[in-house]
Amino acid sequence: MKFKIADYAGFCFGVQRAMDMAWEELETMNDDEVYSLGPLIHNKQAVKVYEDKGLNVVDDLDKVNEKSKIIIRSHGVSKDIYRNAVDKNLKVIDATCPFVKKIQDIANEYYNKGYKIIIVGDKSHPEVVGINGWCNNEAITIKNIEDLSEIPRNYKKYCVVAQTTINLNMYKEISEKLKNILEDVIVHNTICLATRDRQKSASQLSKEVDCMIVIGGKHSSNTQKLVKICEENVETYHIETVSDLHAYDIKKYSFVGITAGASTPSWIIEDVIKFIKNI
User: Fold this and answer.
1) Residue 128 CA, distance from chain mean position
2) Percent of the chain whose pLDDT exceeds 70
């Protein structure tokens, strides 16, 4: 059996940066407590390592003791979260991905200029929730082409941004249609370079192999998109850890492709590689 790993697989820059920042805080903490607002990344195995080190994962600032440290994860949060953290005398460790921060700044700038903000992405995803919090939670969020019919036309001007991990081709198609149906619209391509490269390399590899293994959390948006991209070309298996592979008959394939979402640690990828090598 042959196998090949996609050129771009595993931690992206933003995730690696957030994990490094969090680990540094845990390494240097004394009597102070360290919290993260929501799981650092969408990978429960990696998050558990940090919890074992002393990280407290909470879903609300009200659950954080005063004067503690609060880590803002790579997905980012709304403007109100920062205000509330200051009011509680918390030390904020801002690990927001720079690419996500750029989108927040765009949404805030154009909202203040009177534009209606349109976010193309998953309305419930923490990154999108955070971006919406920089335009007074008044953004219109659409997920696909079908949602275009729901966009109100009673605003004078619109500004469009994208969740960093959405499918590039879909965003291009939505952007072109928005330009056709809205008179005054500014479109910003805010899909991060790492996402574009990851999706492109996964697509290319999936056309060369007999099956694809996509490693990543079940709740990871970018991993789910990799699965859909690969499924268009070849039989695809979405797993979180190597133990999930035991449910599939991988032995029947002669050439296996491997890729991984942006929140997948290198040690989980290595476990899968060892499994394939043993076959």
Assistant:
1) 10
2) 100
The CA distance from 250 to 210, in Å, is: 10
Q: Is 222 annotated as a binding residue?
A: yes
Answer whether residue 31 shows pLDDT above 80: no
What Å distances lie between residue 237 and 110, 212, 214, CA to CA? 41, 6, 6
Region 138-142: mean pLDDT is: 97
Q: Is 138 a catalytic residue?
A: no
- DSSP class of residue 104 equals H
Can you give the pLDDT at residue 29?
86
Catalytic member of 33, 127, 235, 240: 127
pLDDT in tens, 211-221: 999 999 988 88
Give the chain's end-to-end CA distance (angstroms, integer). 7
For residue 263, say whether it is annotated as part of any ligand binding site: yes
Q: Are strands 235-239 and 140-142 parallel, antiparallel or unpaired?
A: unpaired
pTM listed for this prediction = 0.85
219 assigned ligand-binding residue: no
Side-chain half-sphere exposure of 184, counting CA atoms within 13 A: 9
